[in-house]
From TrEMBL, chains A, B:
Protein name as annotated: Glucokinase-like ROK family protein
Species lineage: Bacteria, Bacillati, Actinomycetota, Actinomycetes, Actinopolysporales
UniProt domain HTH marR-type: residue ranges: 7-53
GO molecular function: DNA-binding transcription factor activity
Matches recorded under InterPro entries: ATPase_NBD, HTH_MarR-typ, ROK, ROK_cs, WH-like_DNA-bd_sf, WH_DNA-bd_sf
Organism: Haloactinomyces albus
Length: 399, 399
């Protein structure tokens, strides 16, 4: 099924049922402000299209008992979050309750065929477990710049083979359903907005500190992508004319100081220079250090690792302080692998932002860790695609 | 008159007539997608309320001649732009054609009674010249933070007596019409969007470099104000831990380097130190230097002044480079008194932004000077209030 609602009333009914669960026809008519007869017409059309089904009768409110309308129990949305080293897949029903969630290790630099193949395999696995029948739409997150309109990655760094690869078209044919492709950080922001720590906030920022650093911008409940889709790409904001060389070829970018990649580089240097026995031991065991090792070192109380993590938080805080003054968000969410190292990073970010940003902008500003953590991207993917499937196709909306 | 349209159709008719001028009933019906009889009903209601009037008959398209509908020629909107040292007033008709425009010198630190009194005097003067009859709404810009919801300034620096002063209420009673109060930079952005260089752009930034420095943010054609109304307040972004003390009490703010106030301070120092004969002569004549003197010195080719202006552009460019990477706008407009010094400032800003921002974000990004210059704020004020008057009151809109 790849139908869409025929008019704005139908779209409103679907979104209401998604957000608030089953309704009696009487409640639905009141909420949508449609007469009983007009509502019946629209609900019947939605039922014919397979969007909704009957769920028995509501308790009587005095007169005739009103029948219950709910989203079809056969609706399935898929969210796919492609990270630098793993793929994460969630399948939900129409209300976006997660029915199945799984992930696998796969490096994004292995190219789109391998990575998307792995994602399809994971969806098949969940299907086989009885979680999914047909797929009615999928939202896919990519760890790099994306043309949202075209559904393709655009010159993504560290992703050989992905530039202009037709991700949306390939996956749409695979699933026989609508697919949208977005930057992974945007999906994480949508996920936190839908079911996480940003549930009640319409204007907020989500900063992901992982292998790279990016920011999801939500304005009035929707992702703001900018005119060429690169909004929120804060990893390459220059914070020092004179700093380390970044993977992008420029000098002194935020990522070159504060990302997981930068931390791994600094941790390796510290281990080799004998400044941290803990890190030296891990380096000797595994031959290379990653952000995970720093997280472990911080948990073990290694002072050099704690210092590095605080340094990362300080740099992120510097950039964020400007963005908070500029954007005046209602919330800042900190997410990503490095953020999972927890409170010393968060404390440093808070300290810099609260000290440096405009008092008016920070007076009421919580800065918190992600609630959904690893699942945020996949959940956001299902939210993105359900927004699309539960809306009137462009050009046919009422004006 | 302080009526508002009764429903979304009426609001759409009014905005269409504002933007595109008189329409025949036939054209209006097509554009709004209403049947002839439904349209007649809404147009008649708008005529009864004094919003529209008949403008004769259109040329026949075969059948009966269709009568022309236009906004009432009696509609008047007022835009008031309060600057640090002057007040600027424009009066427009319903289509926002400027019928009269005037300004007067008055320092904002003289307090709200004096400054608003002067603004009312200017409106009266335009009225006496036959430009205004009744006022149907006014949009007022204030050079400091504003609570848009409450219509009051919020702890504005350099504006003694203005904090929480009921500007909206006072002026609404004075005019007997709806009034909205906003930050002056937001109004300038709206003005450029309505009738200036940003006419066709829905996502852009307007940076004002005057006595202070601020930024108007337009998202999807509307001003983005942030959760506490301070969005765009970029003047106090810290660019150096170790820089000059700012009027706000912090250290190294953008304004402390690059505003008109900072330039006047540096020009005075240069004059006193004998580094610029031109500036020293002006200082001796007038006893104090302002941004205007630097503009004049730049025009006269004084190398010290040109260097200062470039320094200002460099600092603004540094901050803007980050904001462009973050926000990925379709246009950046440079405005304000210091910007009127022209191209050496603009060249420096462009050079820094194009070099430092993400290539994806600058690929298609024009950075240009304001087109409306001094009139942008007042025109934006009339646009803001007409958007409000030509919309359905909250709570009664169709859902």
């Amino acid at each position: 099924m790849s139908l869409r609602p025929e008019n704005a009333q139908q779209a409103r009914i679907l979104r209401l049922l998604r957000g608030n669960g089953p309704h009696s026809r009487a409640e639905l008519g009141e909420a949508i402000r449609l007469s009983r007869s007009k509502l019946a017409l629209e609900v019947d059309r939605l039922a014919e299209q397979g969007f909704v089904e009957s769920g028995g009768f509501a308790a009587s409110r005095g007169g005739r008992r009103s029948s219950i309308v709910r989203l079809s129990s056969k609706l399935r949305f898929v969210g796919i979050d492609i990270g630098a080293t793993s793929v994460d897949v969630a399948v939900t029903n129409g209300e976006l309750d997660v029915l199945g969630h799984t992930s696998a290790e796969v490096a994004v630099h292995e190219g789109p065929t391998t990575v998307l193949g792995k994602a399809i395999e994971l969806v098949e696995k969940l299907r086989a477990e009885g979680v999914a029948t047909d797929v009615h739409g999928a939202g896919i997150g990519i760890p790099g710049p994306v043309s949202f309109r075209d559904g393709v990655p655009v010159v993504p760094p560290i992703m050989p083979g992905w530039d202009q690869y037709p991700v949306r078209e390939t996956m749409s044919q695979e699933f026989g359903a609508p697919v949208l492709v977005d930057n992974d950080v945007n999906l994480m922001a949508l996920g936190e907005h839908h079911a996480g720590v940003a549930r009640s906030i319409d204007d907020f920022l989500l900063v992901k500190i992982g292998t790279g650093i990016g920011c999801g911008i939500v304005v009035d409940g929707d992702v703001y992508r900018g005119v060429s889709g690169s909004a929120g790409d804060i990893g390459h904001i220059q914070i020092d004319d004179d700093g380390p060389i970044c993977t992008c070829g420029n000098i002194g970018c935020l990522e070159a100081y504060a990302s997981g990649t930068a931390l791994a580089r600094d941790a390796t240097a510290a281990a080799r220079a004998g400044r941290s026995a803990y890190l030296a031991e891990r380096l000797e065991k595994s031959g290379a250090l990653s952000a995970v090792d720093i997280t472990a070192a911080v948990a073990a109380g290694d002072p050099v690792a704690v210092q590095m993590l605080r340094g990362s938080g300080h740099r992120v805080g510097q950039v964020l302080a400007s963005l908070v003054s500029f954007f005046n968000p209602g919330l800042v969410v900190i997410a990503g692998g490095v953020a999972s190292a927890g409170h010393s990073l968060l404390a440093e970010i808070r300290s810099v932002v609260y000290r440096r940003s405009l008092p008016l902008a920070t007076g009421n500003l919580p800065i918190v860790l992600s609630e959904l953590a690893d699942a945020a991207g996949a959940v956001g993917g299902t939210r993105l695609i359900s927004d699309h499937v539960f809306s009137v196709p462009r050009g046919t909306e009422e004006r």
